[in-house]
């Protein structure tokens, strides 16, 4: 990804860029692969889950390919700056990480299955980096929308830590926090790898299966 200054510590609220009260760009209406609206409100009965696992281009594709996913949307989450731009996030001065909002049908899939896909699609032990992508915007994160999601995410982290430790990996650095504001990213980031099939994808897992969910996710 471009423009990164490889900042490896989070800014305080006082250090963070101020941002703006309204987005500086428009977001497309519909998902280029799934055909459904990108932004809410979403149909009744669907559930929202938010994940950060490195560059959101490849991360989003992992989720839109999963059964039961109704739509996906990439954006910025977990920081201080209101309505940031991509360049601001990559400066390391907003505190946000690159995130994927996943809207799914719980009658078809489960939060546990999405957690399994999340854990197996990246290396959650790398801190402020993912592979060759270095910076606070690439940190691993789960932002939860209910106490049930929070508990399930924390339990899945403990389960995956056990098998990672047995495979020689270090401590998981994934932050698991209640969801705050999610700021949609610019239009060209949405479904980037559908628009650019040969585009950059920095997503890669550890090869260690996560012992939750229904079946090992296929990449």
TrEMBL record:
It comes from Streptomyces malaysiensis subsp. samsunensis. GO terms for biological process: cellular response to oxidative stress. Gene3D superfamilies: Peptide methionine sulphoxide reductase MsrA. Its EC number is 1.8.4.11. Has an important function as a repair enzyme for proteins that have been inactivated by oxidation. Catalyzes the reversible oxidation-reduction of methionine sulfoxide in proteins to methionine. GO terms for cellular component: cytoplasm. Residues 1-24 are annotated as: Disordered. It comes from the Bacteria. The keyword Repeat does not apply. Residues 50-201 form the Peptide methionine sulphoxide reductase MsrA domain. The active site is at 55. Pfam families: PMSR (PF01625). The keyword Oxidoreductase applies. This is Peptide methionine sulfoxide reductase MsrA. It catalyses: L-methionyl-[protein] + [thioredoxin]-disulfide + H2O = L-methionyl-(S)-S-oxide-[protein] + [thioredoxin]-dithiol; [thioredoxin]-disulfide + L-methionine + H2O = L-methionine (S)-S-oxide + [thioredoxin]-dithiol. NCBIfam families: msrA. Belongs to the MsrA Met sulfoxide reductase family. SUPFAM superfamilies: Peptide methionine sulfoxide reductase. One of its GO terms (molecular function) is peptide-methionine (S)-S-oxide reductase activity. InterPro entries: Met_Sox_Rdtase_MsrA_dom, Met_Sox_Rdtase_MsrA_sf, MsrA_MetSO_reductase. HAMAP family: MsrA (MF_01401).
